[in-house]
Design brief:
With 155 residues, this protein is an all-alpha fold. It has one domain (13-151): Orthogonal Bundle (Helix Hairpins). It has 3 helices and no strands. The two termini are 35 Å apart.
């Protein structure tokens, strides 16, 4: 393919805007991914602490003290609430990360479509340039006097 000099893609501004949106979506996805990792770790830790406390509480050898038992139950309920809250926040972060992943994929697809369109426009521009150059060459050849044209012709 020839050098596409003089080619101006009319959608260059749109390409820039889509590129900026893609960069922003990727950055948002990275932040959401780090947040999700943190929340998954917090949820797992909260669930592990709650599970350990329940195991200790229900241990067969535990002595039953009604006052201590009520405090332990309240504490276990609070631990369970924290574990459920951490799991809920983790699930919300997962949903946000999934949404951002879809946005990155859609924006990348839009940018790929613009790149394909640009390549097709460059090819069309080059073909048109070659057609115009050939026509101009033919016109220049035909504009020469007949004697000059016949001079270079094989006998």
């Amino acid at each position: 393919m020839r050098d596409p000099r003089g080619f101006e893609y009319p959608l260059d501004g749109q390409v820039s805007r889509v590129t900026w949106r893609l960069d922003r979506a990727i950055a948002d996805l990275a932040v959401a991914g780090r947040e999700l990792q943190t929340l998954e770790r917090e949820a797992a830790e909260a669930d592990a602490v709650w599970g350990e406390r329940v195991r200790v509480r229900t241990d067969a050898g535990a002595r039953i003290d009604p006052m201590l038992s009520m405090a332990n139950v309240r504490f276990l309920v609070e631990l369970q609430r924290r574990a459920q809250d951490a799991a809920r926040r983790r699930d919300l972060a997962r949903a946000r990360a999934d949404t951002l992943m879809r946005r990155v994929a859609a924006t990348q697809a839009e940018l790929d479509g613009l790149a394909d369109d640009r390549r097709a426009c460059v090819v069309a521009h080059v073909r048109e340039s070659e057609r115009v150059a050939a026509r101009d060459g033919d016109d220049a050849w035909l504009a020469r006097p007949r004697a000059v044209r016949d001079e270079g012709a094989p006998a």
